[in-house]
Amino acid sequence: MKLLCTTLPLREFWITKGLWVCSCCRYQIPKRISGPLLDRIDIHIEVPSVDYEKLSSERLGETSETIRKRVQAARDMQYNRFSNGESKDIVCNADIRVGEVRRFCQLQAEGQSLMRSAMSQLQLSARAYHRILKLSRTIADLAGSEEIQSAHLAEALQYRPKIMM
Predict the structure, then answer these.
(1) Of 55, 84, 104, 150, which alpha carbon lies 20 to 30 A from 112's?
(2) What is the pLDDT of residues 59-72, one digit of tens each?
């Protein structure tokens, strides 16, 4: 199941007495999304407005075909990883169960140190820990890497909600 959420497009806000307060207009938004619900969402991305210069520049981004090929290569890596084991019901990284995370999402020493720091500094839950590891595995697959590097883990940590941090 996929879930996509959005909130009001306010640029800057702070939290005071359980309310999100916009710094430009002092608009108050009640905190309606609970921490446990936010914890179940894997990727949180703030999408800023785009400057005219960037939109009108001659520089082109990646084509859809290039991205499609990279995603397909990552899906193929996942298929090969999971079709060789006893976990026949796992098709992609999102299907990895908690008990299988250690097997499929192993971190190198540097990554373990980074995760240890993130767990204590960000006060991550066990659920967040497992979700971050699975997302790191996917980021590594998209990069064509068999191992989860610390850069993959760092990127996954960036996708945690800023409010909970």
Answers:
(1) 84
(2) 888 899 999 999 99
